[in-house]
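Let's practice the habit of predicting before peeking. Look at the sequence and jot down your guess about where helices and strands might fall. Then scroll down.
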Amino acid sequence: MHRLLVFVAIALLASSCASSPGDPRGDAASREGTLIIGAIPDQDPQELQRTYGEVSEYLSDRLGVPVRYVPVTDYTASVTAFRQGGLQLVFFGGLTGVQARAQVPGALPIAQRDIDASFRSVFVAGTDTGIDQIDDVSGLRALAGHSFTFGSETSTSGRLMPQHFLSEAGVEPGQFSGNVGYSGSHDATAKLVEAGSYQVGTLNAAVWDERVRAGEIDTDKVREVFRTPPYHDYHWLARPDLDERFGTGFTQRVTETLLGMDGDEAGRQILDLFQANRFIPTEAANYTQIESVARALGLLN
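Done guessing? Here is the structure:
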């Protein structure tokens, strides 16, 4: 009798935890576990936690599976975690996305912000440097001889493409005063130049614009001197095993959810945090320029 009662109790518990036949959300969550999302640490960690915490809640509600944001320490760690499966859906920069696809065959770029189809970097300079506004790429020669900082070493908008445009102007890292710096994030670059730690720096144009609008940059001390030509940059990259983990068609559902985010108020509020109006479709071919530049700089095997 005791064994029978135990058996009945276990059966009742299992029944209470199971989904109803018409509730695919709970069923998917119980079968497949948690979708782990991530991003490159290109801004203040608190800003990232806020943004991707809201993304997690939004995706969880629409997809019917638990979604959790896991921060990483640096750009390289985001690629490593994606390769190892610790991150399954990541908002990468152009370069880190290319690096991740090289390490995870079949990984799929599924969406980018509208601004990422024509993204830009800005070069900023201390107002006391006397550097005038620069009209074209060739004018970047005026930066030579000044102290200079990039962002992260593997940042697309904070290092890769700015170095590419500097090279087009005939300016190489050895022509700057002292050792070139790597601040680690776009916020840090702006603040280092503002503080006079470096005379010149380069960063993500969207971050610069947002920080200036928010009054977080003292434009009496640091100002934009050049905005680069456009290029493709940030994008959501999905591991190739999402359908295996979460069910057939799951990758497509994630894609459609991101692309439809501008269709409701909660989604539009998240898009504001991304400095975007909507997410749009993308494909691997959009990042061939970044791949070529990365190979030339020795950042891609």
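How did you do? The chain has a mean pLDDT of 90.
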